[in-house]
């Protein structure tokens, strides 16, 4: 493999920015690319636009050292890492993978490619996406050959290395987690492997691109199925008047049982999205995965029904909705069930809503358009007669029980 003196990371979000910063911290020149002028400006000032522990200090260090800078346009490099969103579109109940961001990034990268370059897709994607990238790039650059055309003799190497990190622990996990390196060909995988060895201390396991694509989807579908089991148990327990939290503790005394904790649904850009990519690719064969998605997607409405039920007993319901992020102690609202719950309650005019989310400075547009505003935690508890705990942020855990004794309380995460 030729030496890599410059890496381009396309997409500077929750995955791309930490990845770019870690590579830069290892002494590699990194050019980050993002379509947002605001994001580029913030990064070049050494200020992250996302919340992630220790990222601010790392970013300032590598920007000041001249190892990382951001741009709105793709520039020539030796290796390109594409880390752009891969959402889905819900069309009449069918969830279509939206690969438009991947296609746009691939075509932009293609314009500056040269012989010997390496292109890696980190975005979680349906099986076959890495091969489609080769097609998109070849359309832009007919003067170059790609591994789907000439195999090991191609001018450009292409691979898929899915991110496998947890928000809140990204800087640690991008270095220490095992990585799956899926090449279109064996040499593609080996070249990508050498690149990741610059930063990765965990095991790097080479395979083919299609297997790597499905491996990431399978990981998140596995978690989705297990969460669905816990969520379904919580609904069953509610019907049978059984405390689900006690039930799970007792069941987990069995040495080979580990039931997860139920919640208000499933959110985030991975678990709530990736299983649909499998269903789209093999709808008749993914019945369990489809059923799990239905269970988890149905949990927010279950929570809304519980709120409506309690609100009926109040002359003027004032409802404190605690938490909007998809998991505790992060600012990430993507696919968050808490956001869906609050939005539905607002549309239904169940009562006055006091929305508390300490990790964001403003509400998402969907909630602002419904006339909602952020409320201080203490003020919300003081004013509310119905409290709904949607996210188990650390700041919510230690509450004076006397403040809750005369209120209806719905704890969707089982920490109160």
Give the C-level CATH assignment of the largest domain: Alpha Beta
Largest sheet: 8 strands, mixed
Overall 3D form: globular
Level-2 CATH architecture of the largest domain: 3-Layer(aba) Sandwich
The count of strands amounts to 14
| Spatial separation of the terminal alpha carbons | 55 Å
Number of helices: 16
Q: Which consecutive residue ranges, at least 5 long each, have pLDDT under 50?
A: none
Structural class: alpha/beta
Rounded to an integer, what's the Rg over CA atoms?
23 Å
Give the CATH H-level superfamily of the largest domain.
NAD(P)-binding Rossmann-like Domain
What is the CATH topology assignment of the largest domain?
Answer: Rossmann fold
> What value does the average pLDDT take?
95
**How many domains, in number, for the residues?**
2
Biggest sheet: strand arrangement = 3-2-1-4-7-8-9-10
If you had to describe this structure to a student in words, what would you say it looks like?
It is a single chain. The protein has 2 domains: about 5-200, Rossmann fold (3-Layer(aba) Sandwich), CATH 3.40.50.720; about 225-410, Rossmann fold. Helices cover about 40% and strands about 15% of the residues. Helix 4 packs across helix 5, helix 9 (about 210-240) crosses helix 11 and helix 11 (about 275-280) crosses helix 12 (about 285-310). The strands form 3 sheets. Strands 3-2-1-4-7-8-9-10 form an 8-stranded mixed sheet, sandwiched between helices. A 4-stranded parallel sheet has the order 12-11-13-14, sandwiched between helices. The mean pLDDT is about 95. It is of the alpha/beta class and about 425 residues long. It has helices at about 15-25, 35-45, 55-65, 100-110, 130-140, 145-150, 170-175, 185-195, 210-240, 245-250, 275-280, 285-310, 335-350, 365-370, 375-385, 395, and strands spanning about 5-10, 30-35, 70, 80, 90, 95, 120, 155-160, 180-185, 205-210, 320, 350-355, 385-390, 410. Strand 9, helix 8 (about 185-195) and strand 10 form a beta-alpha-beta unit. The protein contains 16 helices and 14 strands.
